[in-house]
Design brief:
Radius of gyration: 17 Å
Helix content: 55-70%
Structural class: mainly alpha
Shape: flat
Strand content: under 5%
Largest sheet: none
Number of domains: 1
Number of helices: 4
Order of helices and strands: HHHH
Number of strands: 0
């Protein structure tokens, strides 16, 4: 197993763990609402550490970075794992 496959599996494992904790939280929540909370990269890092994004002068790059850090972390980890599996298929050991 190559390092790309290993990191891809770790990304998918993180995705699975987050999904399980979200499901358990939705089941046990006493608020009565079945809400699924999307955890994004800005929630993990902290919005105060990402204020430099607002200082980017090109609005295209600023919007791209804002979109990237606001994607739900589950989708981001799943996409990263998929990307690493594809990279392994092309440049991995034969």
């Amino acid at each position: 197993m190559s390092k790309y496959t290993t990191f891809g599996l770790f990304a998918w494992l993180g995705c699975f763990v987050i999904a399980c904790f979200q499901a358990i939280e939705a089941i046990v929540s006493t608020g009565g609402a079945w809400g699924w909370k999307h955890i994004s990269l800005s929630d993990v890092i902290g919005r105060e550490y990402l204020l430099w994004v607002e200082g980017i002068t090109l609005t295209v790059f600023q919007n791209l970075i804002n979109d990237f850090i606001s994607i739900p972390l589950i989708f981001l980890l799943f996409g990263a794992g998929l990307f690493l599996f594809i990279v392994n298929a092309f440049i991995g050991p034969r």
